[in-house]
Amino acid sequence: xxxxxxxxxxxxxxxxxxxxxxxxxxxxxxxxxxxxxxxxxxxxxxxxxxxxxxxxxxxxxxxxxxxxxxxxxxxxxxxxxxxxxxxxxxxxxxxxxxxxxxxxxxxxxxxxxxxxxxxxxxxxxxxxxxxxxxxxxxxxxxxxxxxxxxxxxxxxxxxxxxxxxxxxxxxxxxxxxxxxxxxxxxxxxxxxxxxxxxxxxxxxxxxxxxxxxxxxxxxxxxxxxxxxxxxxxxxxxxxxxxxxxxxxxxxxxxxxxxxxxxxxxxxxxxxxxxxxxxxxxxxxxxxxxxxxxxxxxxxxxx
Length: 302
Ligand SMILES: [Zn+2]
Description:
Layout: H1 18-26, E1 28-34, E2 45-52, H2 57-60, H3 67-91, E3 96-99, H4 101-106, H5 108-116, E4 120-123, H6 136-154, E5 160-161, H7 172-178, E6 183-184, E7 193-198, E8 201-207, H8 217-220, H9 234-251, E9 254-259, H10 261-264, H11 271-281, E10 286-288, H12 291-301
Parallel strand pairs: 2-3, 2-9, 2-10, 3-4, 5-6, 6-8
Antiparallel strand pairs: 1-7, 7-8
Helix pairs in contact: 3-11, 9-11
The chain binds zinc ion.
Zinc ion (ZN) binds at residues 52, 54, 124, 128, 164.
């Protein structure tokens, strides 16, 4: 785990002087919370649904060439995204899709449909690479090339990023800031949007926080050649997501969710999205919005 030892020199972490561990902690920090008293049109709760269209890149990013795993990725395009888009359309709900540039190049028609139906597309790396393993220059170049590629495929310039696997290098936030992106959605320091600080200074980039608890992947992924199997029934995942919403609604805050077309887009699981939207719509004063719209509202009204 080399990246956890950066700046450590020859010292073990338990030998680090205070200045050293403080510097590590303060690289990227949550600043002021951006929590409006109410959301658009007087809503008490904002609901931000998101889908990471990784498809084949989960296999490709490590140089994998497994035809079986690549076929699971293709399912994300053939079945996952269409099922999700149909559900969103039936409820007239807009969401955000984070798309690796390689996925966008493999499936440009999918991205155009996502945009045509009013959803947002954000950056999700080039080939789902791990930022913390990249040389700085390569990370910068890939992030900019990914934005250019999404723009050329979709006709819209992305304004936000979700780093692949929510992996951050010490350079990631500076690159995001320098690119003029409005927000990141990969970190976990709060339930509300917040200002992102880099070495103690506000970057102007807003964080719309995620959490593994609100991510389908942790409950459903299996590894064919290891003991790892899905251990949470879909009904329990629905219950966890519902309770996360209940808390956000009770407190008057933000409910954010991360899902994957190649993970949730199955007959026994995709109902979770439909049921959840139905349940949420049973509440008054709820605002469904893209991540970009939530960030803009929070920034302007907090
Ligand atoms: Zn991803």
